[in-house]
């Protein structure tokens, strides 16, 4: 599929107000139908109940008082004004069990207990084994009685969830090392924020989403994710792509209503990337024309700063906002810190504007390794305000209940309020202040 410059082919508003859309990159068909778009973006939690200090740190398995319910930490960020991570954070790696409570982890990187592509998949199909560093970490962790008990506890929980009658303490040494290998060298990681509830929350309605982080905290969250992406590529030469995403709230696919991102190394680049890259190879202006340029022409630009732009987009199953890096580099781990922070600030601002009670998916896109066609780093925030049903399943035409213009009209005033209240980063231009030139995505030229 090679999109032409004919807008009617991809975005057409009919006399009755129906908007028929085809995503230029994926080919997804979407209709916005009048009369179905007056729904609220989110619904506050019904019948919230009070919470006490104990529940703030123990509400789910990702909480600070339940550290031993997740596999061993690959690393954590702790507050330190002289640390190695900008913004006042220091990275601690491979902590033994006895040191887990000696510091407060603002963000933790741990293996996912239920991998999408399992360690066995990579071992059997690609011959991947633990690196020397991962093997050394596994050996030292298991040699510690507390570490051994932690690994056995997590394995037992995994076996039980899979309906297996295995017990980790009854495994042979070789089997224990094989079963625990994903904890030390797997390719599916979770980055977990400290808070389950906002610091000032009085009830269970006060969840701590991305918009409840400070600007500095969100930058650290993003920087840690970018570093982890590069780590997964380095650790697995057979990984063609690292998918990065954030599911917020259970309707969006989250296992826990606790802020976290996921990273998954896969051995393909995915159909969506293939489609977009094939089209971009034939038409290098594709990303600019159907991204920022379209938003400029249709007054859908929400915000911009020196290295990124945010706008309402079209052709997605759900109402969506995209944040694109305007850097000349298209892989975030190769960018200057200021360029990554710029993207972080706009993503954070959109989360602030959307609010904590809206289920959402945050999807990251970058140029895959071993691919030469440029694809600027961008993040799509999809608002899960409707549920595809029989019509969508039978026709593959998705009903998006909120038009791009309507979403922009809802979010822009919230961004203006958030800036006035100093809840978003300084230096962000909003709406007509952006005054962007066409072709602002330098990595797409």
Secondary structure topology:
Layout: E1 11-13, E2 19-22, E3 29-32, H1 53-56, E4 75-79, E5 89-93, E6 107-111, H2 119-126, H3 132-143, H4 145-161, H5 173-185, E7 188-193, H6 215-235, E8 241-248, E9 260-266, H7 271-282, H8 286-290, H9 292-297, E10 301-304, E11 308-312, E12 320-325, H10 337-354, E13 360-365, E14 378-383, H11 390-395, E15 397-399, H12 404-420, E16 429-430
Parallel strand pairs: 3-15
Antiparallel strand pairs: 1-2, 2-3, 4-5, 4-6, 6-7, 7-9, 8-9, 8-13, 10-11, 10-16, 11-12, 12-14, 13-14
Structure, explained:
With 445 residues, the protein is α+β, with helices and mostly antiparallel strands. Helix content is 31%, strand content 18%. The strands form two sheets. Strands 5-4-6-7-9-8-13-14-12-11-10-16 form a twelve-stranded antiparallel β-sheet. A four-stranded mixed β-sheet has the order 1-2-3-15. A hairpin with a 7-residue loop joins strand 11 and strand 12. The chain starts with 10 loop residues before the first strand and ends in a 15-residue tail after the last strand. The mean pLDDT is 93.
Element string (H = helix, E = strand): EEEHEEEHHHHEHEEHHHEEEHEEHEHE
Report the portion of residues in β strands. Answer: 15-25%
CATH class of the largest domain: Alpha Beta
Tell me the quaternary state. single chain
What general form does the structure show?
globular
Tell me roughly what share of residues is in helical segments.
25-40%
Name the poorly predicted regions. Answer: none
The value of Rg in angstroms is 22 Å
CATH architecture of the largest domain: 2-Layer Sandwich
Give a quick account of the main beta sheet: strands, pairing sense, barrel closure.
Answer: 12 strands, antiparallel
CATH superfamily annotation of the largest domain: HIT-like
| Average pLDDT number | 93
Count of all domains: 2
Number of helices: 12
CATH topology of the largest domain: HIT family, subunit A
Protein name: DUF4921 domain-containing protein
Pfam family, one: DUF4921
Organism: Acidipropionibacterium jensenii
Domain DUF4921: 14-442
